[in-house]
Amino acid sequence: MRLALIVLAWLVFLPSYALADDRVEHGDWYSQFLEGMGEAGTHENGLSTFGILCAEGNCRYYFANGINCEPSSNYPLMITTEGGAVSVESVCEPVSTANGDIMVYWFNESDAINQAFKKTLVVGFAFPLSDGKFKVNKFSMDGFNAAVDRMVGGLKDKRERQNEKNQSNPSDSQGRT
Asked: Is a pLDDT exceeding 90 seen at residue 104?
């Protein structure tokens, strides 16, 4: 699972979008697919990124703000929406890109977070720094719902087509000796 998430994150930060299938812009957000994986994401003036990645029925949010961290360590994030604020634990993992390694903070989706994101115009992240200050990033949510709906729906359709194919050709889904 960790490898799958790292591969997914790597896709987020590719400087070229040529590898992505069906990249579509939705306001300030985009959705795209690559090899059975889906992503919906946005950025803050190219300085930080925020989005959600899904593969094999599992989805996780990601946030990258350019701050170094200890790999596999937990870090708190304060997330603010028009409906209030919530503190979440994130796990930091380095992701290799064409421009070098970057640190990505992953956190789990939940019904409460998903609903808060769907209902707000702006999401803010307050990231605690070692000097007692916070780094704050804000992301427009214009297009979030459309991007996530397209990404989730596209993955669901692909999974259903694969299941139909496997049912019509059961020998194709069995191992051969």
From this structure: yes
Q: What integer pLDDT is reported at residue 162 of this predicted model?
A: 79
8 Å CB contact between 121 and 61: no
Q: Residue 107: which residues within 8 A CB-CB, separation 6 or more?
A: 60, 61, 62, 63, 77, 88, 89, 90, 91
Check: CB of residue 89 under 8 Å from CB of residue 105.
no
Q: Is the pLDDT of residue 18 over 60?
A: no
CB contact at 8 A, 5 and 53 = yes
Q: Give Rg (Cα) of the chain.
A: 17
CATH of domain 2-160: 2.60.40.1880
The mean predicted confidence, pLDDT, of the chain is 84
